[in-house]
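Anyone have tokens for Unsaturated rhamnogalacturonyl hydrolase YesR? Sequence:
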Amino acid sequence: MTQHTTGTASALVQQTGTNCLGDTTSSRKKLSLSPHQYTPQKTAKMPAELHGVKAADVHKQVKQLIHELVNIKDSTGEFLLKLDDGRIIDTKGWNDWEWTHGIGLYGIWKYYELTGNPDDLAVIEDWFKNRFEEGHKGKNINTMAVFLTLAYVYEKTGNETYRPWLESWAEWAYHDLPRTKYGGMQHITYLEVNDQQLWDDTLMMTVMPLAKIGLVLNRPHYVEEAKKQFLIHLQYLFDAPSGLFFHGWSFHDGGHNFARARWARGNSWVTIVIPEFIELLNLQPDDAFRAHLVNTLEAQAAALVPLQAESGLWRTLLDVPESEGSYPEASATAGFAYGILKSQRKKYIGPEYEAVAVKAVKSVLENITPEGELLKTSFGTGMGHDLQHYKDIPQTSMPYGQAMAMMALVEFLRVYI
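Reply: yep, here.
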């Protein structure tokens, strides 16, 4: 893929744009109605610009992100996943099946929820049609990620050809996915069995899809299993002294958190999934499970505030300075922005984090090229046994980076409504 130079939305923030929310006056001019037939209604005018950012420019950026997402190419083969049995997984390009595509689909779905543009729904359904015709390459924690979006699409369209896929994969996750001690979902992937390991990524990749499928198919035992997985993962991955999450936990060797890495994107999955899960299950304020999730989320949000750089970005190792090799990372920043903005909108946390979230959104905009590529996106990151592992991960445009930026910008667009 061509590497773009940073022509950013710093410039975008200053551009002129029309009000993307529509002009009711111009619409009325097209109607041939007499004064007796039409009574003007007083409507609140939606702001075209907030926090120095124009809504029209944000919409433009989301569309560019989608275009780049579905056209990303791994021209060198550097990021292909080559398996021992001869299978090759294109984790970077659009036309394959991995967690990277699962997050990409969900980002497009979020924009479709906001706009209702049938073209975006068509992109999603075309992806599923093509992958189902090809057949999947194996069930694992990461390949399950695509079914979060499919469950929403099935709920929307009622396309019965989707149901067998939802049923088969949810049954696998509920019954056959390997478990760790105490019943945690073992983070099995294409490459590794990861025996007795819990990863924070699992909450986004498998637990959220299982919960949504449980609701759509009316299988409450799936939802209860998802709640159980949240509790287990929070128990072993949340670092109470720092307020942040470790990337993983192993039950081997007496139990440990590997490198004790407080890795940014892993933390951002938690920032995303907690408000998503509370909303999905419609957990009420007096629900004890909700209270536990909210308390954890608030502790994390408070811990993130002093770790945000002046640029608005967070580093790939949150508590390691750049001088020690921890570079600024945009996909995690987008994830934090999305989770904080949504949590504020849903009143799960207070308004005191607004400035942090807006600063993060602006930093995301500043790292999107004119062609729609999110810069400063770290490649897929396996479990590290030392911190150097995370510092050495290369940066390249990826479907999940595009999608996480979309999610942040789509949630930001709600402030204009």
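The first strand starts at residue 49 and ends at 50.
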